[in-house]
Amino acid sequence: MTFSWSQQRILILSPHPDDEVLGCGGLIHKAKSAGAEVFVQFLTVGNTTDQSSSVSTSPEDRNDEIKRVADHQQWDGWHMAFPGDEYHLRLDQLPRLELANMVEQESPLAIARLRPTMLIAPHRSSYNQDHQAVAEAAHTATRPSNNRLRHHPDFVLAYEEAADQWRTDSVPMPNLLVELTEEDLGSKLEAMRQYATQIHEHPHTRSEETLRSLAVLRGMQAGVPLAEAYHIMRCLA
């Protein structure tokens, strides 16, 4: 298999602002450094109060953070599909068809419009209902069909987050490990710092120690210092 990051147009589905960094922050830096295009499709954002703190954040706060992260990692574009409290943490109440159509056709960053070579979405094993809904929508939007009539990304991947392991059922072992450099991981950690309302002190699933520890663990499994892990849904070589 011959693979070049420089030839990729990557579309990342992020249920909320910060999920794309938690799952793909290292890959984003690696791909952009090689010359790839990276776009982030956010699904929702609203007023939130984190259960582990008394900090309340507004959509305006989160949008400012997105802009800082986008500048830091030099994204080629981003879009918010369903802003507002009506949707935030309620994506599971939207018809699956509506979510899938947004991803596949209706968003400015829809698969049919952007024609990405790689789509990366959350894994359905997440405990978070929004993550599960987006994962299922991505599954539908990338369903097999005649690729002469409908665009098929060559690569469809699911990213992991440390909190995904909190499940009573079995979470499959990731089957793709992407090697990271210290610079890739450093960019990921700095991007997470830009999400100042979302990063936490250790022990927390969104702490710097957690992100580095998971990168070290996945690197060890590949025989390299650092890595991010993914589940392959489609790989057309």
TrEMBL record:
UniProt keyword annotations, A-Z: Hydrolase, Zinc
MF terms (GO), sorted A to Z: hydrolase activity
EC number(s) per entry: 3.5.1.-
InterPro entries according to UniProt: GlcNAc_PI_deacetylase-related, LmbE-like_dom_sf
Major enzyme class: hydrolase
Protein name: PIG-L deacetylase family protein
Organism: Micromonospora parva
